[in-house]
Amino acid sequence: MQHFAYIINQQETFDIKLLHGGFGTAPASEAQHRHLDRHVLYFVFDGEGSLFLQKHSIPISKGDLTVIPSGTYYATTTNNKQTCRLYYISFTCTNLAPLLQHAGLTKQNPIIHIATDYIERMMKRIFKLMSVNSYSSIMKANILFCEIFYKLFTLVPENNVSQKKAPPSYVQQAEEFIKKHYATDISVNDVSQALHISRTYLSAIFKKDKGTTLQNYLTTHRVVKSYNLLINTELSITEIAIRVGFNNSVSYYRQFKSITGISPKQYRLIYRNEIAKKCLVVND
Fold first, then answer.
1. Are residues 37 and 150 in the same domain?
2. How confident is the model at residue 281 (pLDDT cuts 50, 70, 90)?
3. Residue 253 burial by CB count (10 A; 0-12/13-18/19+): exposed, middle or buried?
4. Residue 175: pLDDT over 60
5. CB of 260 within 8 A of CB of 267?
6. Do the Cβ atoms of 217 and 206 come closer than 8 Å?
7. In a domain, 153, yes or no
8. CATH classification at residue 157
9. Which residue, 20, 90, 158, 251, shows the most beta carbons closer than 10 Å to its own?
10. How far apart are CA 218 and CA 280, in angstroms?
11. Distance, CA of 162 to CA of 284 (rounded, Å)
12. Strands of 74-78's sheet, edge to edge?
């Protein structure tokens, strides 16, 4: 009998516990900034207003979601012309920072806009379960709350990255990681794990910033690095493929021709013929 075991990455566990939730209206004038001993998720289900966070005023409107970490000074207000109504849930979480990072909620971009009514439906279901206040209902409410974050992971590319410029540090770190490790057997998953963010989020912000996918960038970098080996060494095509990180010469050949329009062997011959012609001119 075969047995399979999987080890859970403790950095990816969150241990969420709901405390209370409800809905209300943001005050008409700027409220006194406050901080709580718990985290709070806010979702605007109607109207518009402002969120004062980290000494900045951020416009909020229907469909906007944010999470205020415990200890953060903040305030919400309603705009003069329209009331701002919010759902909120306060909770504890042992590992909130990576959870928010995976969801695309950062200090630079603390708001995610969700165009569907999914969050509102989930909030109502959670509030109903919390009102029962039984062991099973609270457990179910926790599960539904975790589902909200799971939904955010899938919404990052279309709702957050498409509207707000991603933090450039992640893109720069991805480039640096590839430049350092391209010759080894790395993948997009390895890059995202090294940066401690989700593959979906990293892929989205990379394409937003560079105009190409992370996989294409990695492949192109490997091909470019092979140019010098083709020109200045007598290594075989297979040896060169392995040295720049390809698993085999077939994959290298296919990617090289896709990028340059010619095969690695043709590239080597063309370049050396050009060098030979220049030498003849000099000697003449």
1. yes
2. very low
3. middle
4. yes
5. yes
6. yes
7. yes
8. 2.60.120.280
9. 90
10. 38
11. 60
12. 56-61, 48-53, 74-78
Strand 56-61 to strand 64-68: parallel, antiparallel, or no bridges (unpaired)? unpaired
With 0.70 as the threshold, say if the pTM is over it. no
Residues 129 and 235 in one domain: no
Q: Name the residue type at position 179.
A: K
3 state SS of 209: helix
Say how many domains are in the chain: 2
Q: Is 55 left (phi over 0), alpha (psi -120 to 50) or beta?
A: left
197: exposed, middle or buried (Cβ count in 10 Å: 0-12, 13-18, 19+): buried
* Host domain of residue 111: 10-161
Domain containing residue 176: CATH number: 1.10.10.60
Q: How many Å separate Cα 132 from the centre of its chain?
A: 36
Per-residue tokens: 135:
């062991």
What are 228-259's pLDDT values in tens digits? 999 889 999 999 999 999 999 999 999 999 99
Distances in whole angstroms, Cα of residue 197 to Cα of each of 75, 112, 216: 29, 17, 19
- Tell me if 106 sits within 8 A of 167, measured CB to CB: yes
**SS3 readout for 157-179:** HHHHHCCCCCCHHHHHHHHHHHH
Report the b/e string of 149-187 with b at 16+ CB within 10 A.
Answer: beebeebbbebbbeebebbeebbebbbebbeeebeeebe
Q: 3-class DSSP state for residue 17?
A: strand
Size of the chain, expressed as the number of residues it contains = 284
Sign, CA dihedral 167-172-175-181, equals: negative
Give dist(CA 86, CA 69) in Å, integer. Answer: 17
Task: Compute the distance between CA of residue 42 and CA of residue 34 in angstroms, rounded to an integer.
Answer: 15
Token pair listed for 44 = 């605007």
